[in-house]
Amino acid sequence: MRASLYQAKMNLFEKHTFHIPVLGVAYSIDTPINVAPYGIDSVISLVDDSTIEKMREFYSKKFNIPFQTISKKVDDFRAKRIASYLDMVDEIVKHKVQELKNSAFKAGDELEKYISLLPNFNELKSKFNFAEMSHQAKEEFTKWIHEKLNVGSIDVNIMTKLDQVNSKNGEELPIEYNDAHAALRGFANSKLNSSLVLSAGMSPRLYSYIEKFNDFFPDKTGSIKKKLILKVSDFRSAFIQGKMMAAKGLWISEYRIESGVNCGGHCFPTDGVLFGPILEEFKQNKDRLYNTCIDIYQKALEGKGHVKPDKTPVIKITAQGGVGTSEEHDLLLDHFELDGVGWATPFMLVPEVISIDTETLDILAKAKEDDLVYSGLSPLGVPFNSVKGVSMSLYKLQLAKDRKPGAACTKGFLKYNTEYTEKPICTSSKQYQTKKIKEIEALNLPEEEFKNAYDKIIERECLCKGLSTSTLISKNIPVEPDFKVTCCPGPNLAYFSKVSTLKEMVDHIYGRINLLDKRHRPHMFMKELNMYLDIFRERFEAFKRNSEDVKELKQLKRFQKNIFEGVNYYKNLFAEKKKEVVDDLDKLLGNYSEIHSDL
């Protein structure tokens, strides 16, 4: 094989065009161990340091790595637990990658699996015949593997709002010991060369704290050891935060756009602005975003005395939320010119990738449209996509039936409410729900009004326990009796019913096989539109009961206007190539008379 031809074929080993976003508090806590050796990026949540510590112990035993407990008595235990776990994950991934590299040309080897997952596997298969390679070609190929083979990134996620103040011996600790600050410090002190995903809104004080760590700044070559990814729901937010970070000398390497409602877990709905138009705005303004931020960034680096890099950084624009077919995947990459696509909910059915107990996995596999709910179960007061029938949902209802509503608040990551206490408490806690129920009982409300108010109170679930329990059970790690399971898939799960392997799901993403049910599945954009129409209907009906709310009337008009602008955008987008989507759109709008109301 001539060197030039060999190099040309090596270029076929391109990176994956998808990533696996964070899945709850713990479902993806060890996902990088399972997928990074195959070149797939994934994200670990840094919310729950106690679960992280238990998983560190589990994997230390599995891979015979020395382990010493980091107790809560240790100073800065949260940051130290996180750093230690991330370093261990990095060590395990490097070990597995080395084994993969050493397995070249062995029958049924891991390298063969690596190659079979690549987006252009069929083309590779037709061009490479490993069995017939010359000795020299095999040596060159092996050298290339050891030097150039792509390894998936071990990225981490911090919800910026989960930054509660912590205390020790009754005294409030300094701000750097807040939850999000400590988690950031744990990542910053780790050995990882990867990215930090910032989600759930802007946090100026946390953003300022990032400046204290050199790994977030470029070296002379322009390389940034720890990159920043910003999860956003619209261009305006991205533009504001990108400039804010640039002014600190911090570069956003990726803007990760997520549907406001058609996603797993917490939802952050827009005021009716649909996903397609949002993606179009990013497409049209990517150069503006880059040019504005790079100028501010370079001046900030110089002003703060940082090294001036030889190369300017790049930005990536990616998207996630409801994608479920290779056709949708390609639409996002080709039409919207994205650099990658996030696939989250479908991987909830891939136990080879995530950590999930068998009972919950069975519930997910059987779940249909009516089982997947847009709910109010989050203590944060933010809409939350979940699934019916998991153990925490049943447990909380039984507690309420036994007149013992609410959970024992032992982890406390979601303490925000100060209605009844000086120090924040969680709205899913016994303390809060008992007080709130007594309050509405004293109002002597009509029966139906009381029931609605009562149901909203007890709907809140303990996510701190619920989103980590399934992972612990899957690893046979003991849990307390009140540790039940909360699960957070998006509505897209309804159309996937097969428990799958990593290979099968990747083949589905790239259009090599089809894992969808035979039932009709609406296009991802239509599913999101359907959800926004449900939201509009609910708000419209509430407004009719209080039509003097001038502020709400103004917001509904804006919501309605945005919906119809999005509808017209989709009609133009799909008019020629996907007429069945336009047909679905018209049928959908016909089911919602409210959206046509003259407000």
Class from helix and strand fractions: alpha/beta
Describe the biggest sheet?
8 strands, parallel
- The percent of residues in helical segments reads 40-55%
What's the Cα radius of gyration?
25 Å
Record field, number of beta strands: 13
Instruction: Give the uncertain stretches in residue-range form.
Output: 1-6
Give the strand content.
5-15%
Count every helix, treating DSSP H or I runs of 4 or more residues as helices: 21
- Taken from the alpha-carbon principal axes, the silhouette is globular
Average the pLDDT over all residues and give the rounded result. Answer: 93
Q: Report how far apart the termini are.
A: 71 Å
Strand order of the largest sheet: 1-11-10-8-7-6-3-2
Give a written overview of the molecule:
The chain has 599 residues and is of the alpha/beta class. Among the domains are: 362-515, no CATH class; 522-599. It has 21 helices and 13 strands. The chain has helices spanning 3-10, 31-35, 49-62, 77-102, 110-117, 121-127, 135-148, 179-188, 204-210, 235-246, 275-303, 326-334, 358-366, 391-401, 430-441, 447-459, 463-474, 502-509, 524-545, 550-574, 579-590, and strands at residues 18-19, 42-45, 154-159, 167-168, 171-172, 195-199, 227-232, 252-258, 265-266, 316-320, 340-342, 372-375, 384-387. The protein starts with a helix and ends in a 9-residue tail after the last helix. Mean pLDDT is 93; it is low at 1-6.
